[in-house]
């Protein structure tokens, strides 16, 4: 029996994985700071005594699309859009440093500043914890200014500076929690040129048109492979017929 | 996992559906006194690790990149946008707007204190200052029979002309409460919010001091809903819903094709 169907099967698996990745991109079209995943197929050649006539494919999510998302103005003090390719430092539940583009910051009961998905925001001196304040402002350089409770509104105090990291020159991977990390556990250097815009929020960078095209492509590639399997089945049936003993 | 794509797209439909409900509620409350608009918050669901970066790809090499498939999106909650609404003059002496931070305190039927920015007060049959639902504001202020020219000062002092007295008599003071994290208050309907662990304890006192806003009588704070903004959000939500339903259609066709042709 021809093993062609197994080669086609790998391609079917690839098309499925790619479709799931595209579905996830489309589902996150409204998630602040979301970075779309990029899927890519790779040919794995099997070297053997015969001709190298067959390559199985392995579909992979090779990384994230780091292009900027659209920035929309929200007017909320704690929303920040991080300009350029700088990333905001956050702390993961096991204490590591990770990075995100998500800028819808929230103030927890304890005064801890977190992102909208609950990760504590890192300042240059560790997690940012704010004392009770009358007002709060984040400036262009990512410094957090507050007017302490009952304080003079004319005299704001700087209480922290957000860790804005530069991913230039370092490999950054998207982890299972959607946060970016340096693969071997390293940390990114602070980006002194990074600027933030408060009162605005960077949306998801999913390009719906592109994602829909990818969706159609994955669907078609699936159909073609199904056709291939059908042909392999016909070939196999024909061979079996030839080999039948005359009645 | 053709089925996987189907479920991932479904999470997208669910999330956009909730978001539409939030927008519908904002639009429905466009004329509600003191209403603050909500914004839907999204987060990605867990990722499935198909291949961990750093795992060995051969005896010498490690995979430099991972193969992680996302499982979709969920709405984590709503964030109330506490921007002030437009203050409009009504001329009614018992309409009060707070200019700045703070909430009026209202005693709810269950004895708890509710907090509100809606200052459209009136008098009960007994002369108490109450909300349109009849809940007395805290501390309770009683207007004596026959009093006229009720005035509320910027610091919350309520005075009125009482028959038989030449000068206006001070009858009490409206106190306001402010919170460290007002977005942590929970909305319970009837224009009321209640304290939660996230909002912190109320800091109660006279209006105009310790960061509390001053009061303006004869005016009302309208909702901070911007209709144009909501309509734009609505279109965006609708489009996002559409692309996710297209995805469901595509995943379904893939599976149908497979089941018919394999």
From TrEMBL, chain A:
<protein>
    <recommendedName>
        <fullName>Flagellar basal-body rod protein FlgF</fullName>
    </recommendedName>
</protein>
<keyword id="KW-0282">Flagellum</keyword>
<keyword id="KW-0969">Cilium</keyword>
<dbReference type="GO" id="GO:0030694">
    <property type="term" value="C:bacterial-type flagellum basal body, rod"/>
</dbReference>
<comment type="subunit">
    <text>The basal body constitutes a major portion of the flagellar organelle and consists of five rings (E,L,P,S, and M) mounted on a central rod. The rod consists of about 26 subunits of FlgG in the distal portion, and FlgB, FlgC and FlgF are thought to build up the proximal portion of the rod with about 6 subunits each.</text>
</comment>
<dbReference type="GO" id="GO:0071978">
    <property type="term" value="P:bacterial-type flagellum-dependent swarming motility"/>
</dbReference>
<comment type="similarity">
    <text>Belongs to the flagella basal body rod proteins family.</text>
</comment>
<keyword id="KW-0966">Cell projection</keyword>
<dbReference type="InterPro" id="IPR010930">
    <property type="entry name" value="Flg_bb/hook_C_dom"/>
</dbReference>
<dbReference type="Pfam" id="PF22692">
    <property type="entry name" value="LlgE_F_G_D1"/>
</dbReference>
<feature type="domain" description="Flagellar basal body rod protein N-terminal">
    <location>
        <begin position="5"/>
        <end position="35"/>
    </location>
</feature>
<feature type="domain" description="Flagellar hook protein FlgE/F/G-like D1">
    <location>
        <begin position="81"/>
        <end position="144"/>
    </location>
</feature>
<dbReference type="InterPro" id="IPR020013">
    <property type="entry name" value="Flagellar_FlgE/F/G"/>
</dbReference>
<dbReference type="InterPro" id="IPR001444">
    <property type="entry name" value="Flag_bb_rod_N"/>
</dbReference>
<dbReference type="Pfam" id="PF06429">
    <property type="entry name" value="Flg_bbr_C"/>
</dbReference>
<dbReference type="Pfam" id="PF00460">
    <property type="entry name" value="Flg_bb_rod"/>
</dbReference>
<dbReference type="InterPro" id="IPR037925">
    <property type="entry name" value="FlgE/F/G-like"/>
</dbReference>
<feature type="domain" description="Flagellar basal-body/hook protein C-terminal">
    <location>
        <begin position="198"/>
        <end position="241"/>
    </location>
</feature>
<keyword id="KW-0975">Bacterial flagellum</keyword>
<dbReference type="InterPro" id="IPR053967">
    <property type="entry name" value="LlgE_F_G-like_D1"/>
</dbReference>
Automatic annotation (TrEMBL), chain B:
<dbReference type="Pfam" id="PF06429">
    <property type="entry name" value="Flg_bbr_C"/>
</dbReference>
<dbReference type="InterPro" id="IPR053967">
    <property type="entry name" value="LlgE_F_G-like_D1"/>
</dbReference>
<dbReference type="GO" id="GO:0009426">
    <property type="term" value="C:bacterial-type flagellum basal body, distal rod"/>
</dbReference>
<feature type="domain" description="Flagellar hook protein FlgE/F/G-like D1">
    <location>
        <begin position="97"/>
        <end position="160"/>
    </location>
</feature>
<keyword id="KW-0975">Bacterial flagellum</keyword>
<dbReference type="GO" id="GO:0071978">
    <property type="term" value="P:bacterial-type flagellum-dependent swarming motility"/>
</dbReference>
<keyword id="KW-0282">Flagellum</keyword>
<feature type="domain" description="Flagellar basal body rod protein N-terminal">
    <location>
        <begin position="6"/>
        <end position="36"/>
    </location>
</feature>
<dbReference type="InterPro" id="IPR012834">
    <property type="entry name" value="FlgG_G_neg"/>
</dbReference>
<dbReference type="Pfam" id="PF22692">
    <property type="entry name" value="LlgE_F_G_D1"/>
</dbReference>
<dbReference type="InterPro" id="IPR037925">
    <property type="entry name" value="FlgE/F/G-like"/>
</dbReference>
<keyword id="KW-0966">Cell projection</keyword>
<protein>
    <recommendedName>
        <fullName>Flagellar basal-body rod protein FlgG</fullName>
    </recommendedName>
</protein>
<dbReference type="InterPro" id="IPR010930">
    <property type="entry name" value="Flg_bb/hook_C_dom"/>
</dbReference>
<comment type="similarity">
    <text>Belongs to the flagella basal body rod proteins family.</text>
</comment>
<dbReference type="InterPro" id="IPR001444">
    <property type="entry name" value="Flag_bb_rod_N"/>
</dbReference>
<dbReference type="InterPro" id="IPR020013">
    <property type="entry name" value="Flagellar_FlgE/F/G"/>
</dbReference>
<dbReference type="Pfam" id="PF00460">
    <property type="entry name" value="Flg_bb_rod"/>
</dbReference>
<feature type="domain" description="Flagellar basal-body/hook protein C-terminal">
    <location>
        <begin position="216"/>
        <end position="260"/>
    </location>
</feature>
<keyword id="KW-0969">Cilium</keyword>
<dbReference type="InterPro" id="IPR019776">
    <property type="entry name" value="Flagellar_basal_body_rod_CS"/>
</dbReference>
<comment type="subunit">
    <text>The basal body constitutes a major portion of the flagellar organelle and consists of four rings (L,P,S, and M) mounted on a central rod. The rod consists of about 26 subunits of FlgG in the distal portion, and FlgB, FlgC and FlgF are thought to build up the proximal portion of the rod with about 6 subunits each.</text>
</comment>
């Amino acid at each position: 029996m021809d093993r062609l169907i197994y080669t086609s099967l790998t391609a079917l698996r690839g098309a499925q994985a790619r479709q799931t990745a595209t579905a996830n991109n489309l589902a996150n079209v409204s998630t602040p700071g979301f970075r779309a995943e990029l899927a890519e197929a790779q040919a794995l050649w099997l070297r053997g005594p015969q001709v190298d006539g067959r390559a199985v494919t392995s579909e992979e999510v090779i990384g994230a699309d780091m292009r900027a998302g659209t920035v929309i103005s929200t007017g909320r003090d704690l929303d920040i859009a991080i300009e350029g390719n700088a990333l905001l430092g956050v702390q993961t539940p096991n204490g590591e440093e990770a990075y995100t583009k998500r800028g819808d910051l929230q103030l927890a009961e304890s005064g801890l500043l977190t992102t909208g998905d609950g990760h504590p925001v890192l300042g240059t001196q560790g997690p940012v914890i704010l004392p009770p304040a009358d007002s709060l402002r984040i400036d262009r350089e990512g410094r957090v200014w507050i007017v302490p409770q009952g304080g003079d509104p004319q005299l704001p105090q700087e209480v922290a500076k957000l860790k804005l990291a530069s991913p230039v020159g370092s490999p950054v991977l998207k982890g299972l929690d959607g946060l970016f990390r340096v693969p071997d556990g390293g940390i990114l250097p602070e980006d002194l040129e990074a600027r933030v815009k408060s009162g605005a929020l960077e949306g998801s960078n999913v390009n719906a048109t592109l994602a829909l095209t990818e969706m159609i492509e994955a669907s078609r590639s699936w159909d073609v492979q199904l056709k291939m399997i059908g042909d392999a089945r016909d070939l196999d049936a024909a061979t079996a017929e030839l080999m039948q003993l005359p009645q | 996992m053709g089925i996987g794509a189907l479920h991932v797209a479904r999470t997208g439909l669910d999330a956009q559906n909730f978001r539409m409900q939030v927008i519908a509620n904002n639009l429905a409350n466009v004329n509600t006194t003191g209403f603050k608009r909500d914004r839907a918050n999204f987060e990605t669901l867990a990722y499935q690790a198909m291949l961990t970066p750093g795992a060995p790809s051969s005896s010498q090499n490690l995979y430099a990149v991972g193969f992680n498939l996302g499982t979709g999106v969920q709405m984590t909650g709503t964030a109330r946008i506490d921007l002030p609404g437009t203050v409009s003059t009504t001329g009614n002496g018992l309409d009060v707007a707070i200019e700045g931070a703070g909430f009026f305190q209202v005693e709810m039927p269950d004895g708890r204190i509710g907090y509100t920015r809606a200052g459209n007060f009136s008098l009960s049959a007994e002369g108490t200052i109450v909300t349109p639902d009849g809940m007395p504001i805290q501390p309770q202020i009683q207007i004596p029979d026959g009093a006229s020219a009720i005035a509320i000062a910027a610091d919350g002092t309520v005075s009125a002309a009482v028959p038989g007295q030449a000068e206006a008599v001070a009858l009490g003071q409206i106190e306001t409460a402010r919170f460290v994290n007002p977005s942590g208050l929970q909305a319970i309907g009837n224009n009321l919010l209640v304290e939660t662990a996230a909002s912190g304890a109320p800091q109660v006192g006279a209006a105009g001091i310790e960061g509390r806003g001053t009061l303006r009588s004869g005016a009302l704070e309208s909702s901070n809903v911007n209709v144009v903004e909501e309509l734009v959000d609505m279109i965006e939500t609708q489009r996002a819903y559409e692309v996710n339903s297209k995805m469901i259609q595509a995943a379904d066709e893939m599976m149908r094709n497979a089941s018919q042709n394999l």
